[in-house]
Amino acid sequence: MTILTDKEIFDAIRERRGKSLSQADVDAINAVLYPAGGRVVSKNGLDLIKSFEGLSLKAYPDPGTGGEPITIGYGHTGGIKLGTIWTQAQADSALADDVSRFADGVAGLIGSAPTTQNQFNAMVSLAYNIGTGNFGNSTLLRLHKAKDYAGAADQFAKWTRANGRVMAGLIRRRAAEAKMYRGQA
Fold it and tell me: What are phi and psi of 56, to 5 degrees?
């Protein structure tokens, strides 16, 4: 399967139309391509998640807690025990399943709220890290649904703690997610 970047898709559409696409055009195309409940994370969003989750084929304790949840692959948890070793194929498969599950969860939570691909990518990355329950109860989601996109983008910076401690990696991740949400990545 070939995964096209958003830019490649929109460049092909621009070529056929013979003119530049406005943000309204892009949002309309996204609404058709990715209806609520069926949206997918683009390659840019997947790359963001992978860059912060990293890859480990050997299970390790959560960096925030020093224990549970035990993690493997690209941040995969659930039923993993220390000492577990995976192949690259297992890690890739788990990532695809996990991202799809979080994308479905975020799509369901945002419902019909207008959402660009970059906003969706950023919110899925956040939910992948904090869980859909926390995301569903977040001020970020509430502000996004109210179309307060600047306020929602500012909320990413509120999610930088693990086990009560501010984590440098989470500060970097939230800045990258906010940048993507704002359409600057």
Answer: -135, 120
Q: pLDDT tens-digit profile of 70-98?
A: 999 999 998 999 999 999 999 999 999 99
Q: CA nearest 102: which of 80, 135, 149, 57?
A: 135
> 84 in helix, strand or coil?
coil
Domains of the chain: 34-53+87-181 (1.10.530.40)
Angstrom distance (rounded) from CA 96 to CA 99? 5
Q: Tokens 């309204």 appear where? A: 24
53 is catalytic: yes
Residue closest to 176 by CA, chosen among 133, 142, 129 = 129
Catalytic residue among 8, 53, 68, 177: 53
Task: Place 4 in a pLDDT band, splitting at 50, 70 and 90.
Answer: low
Q: State the pTM of this model.
A: 0.79
Sort 54 into a burial class: Cβ within 10 Å, 0-12 / 13-18 / 19+. Answer: exposed
